[in-house]
Amino acid sequence: MIIKKTHHIEGWKSWDHEIHHAILAFHSHHSFYPNIMLASDITYNRINMAANKENMENDEGERPEANMYVNLSGFATEKYRLGFCVDNTLDDKVFSLVYDTNPDGDGEPIPEDDTLFDEYQHNVAVNEQ
Question: Residue 120's closest CA among 1, 3, 11, 2?
């Protein structure tokens, strides 16, 4: 089973909060959290530039050294982990949240008729809310 909802980032200062609130809305509607986020390379590059590097850690819980370039590959809280995947068919500032029961398999294709919602390291941005 694959479920997909598309959203738009309103501002780069609050990108992490916007993604977090979209994830919570997804969970509220579907009773489970998405496990994949799709966005274009441009959107991911902007997220990397806007990310607060002090709130990042790798899978072992280690934080990057000061002034070290970090390329995010996911987003997580205590309740969910979201892997980043590139979809260059999406416009800048647009991201899709996907729940895939078999994310590593050759499951069903992601539906093409998804509608855009305005609501709201592996290095992982950690949202502490």
Answer: 11
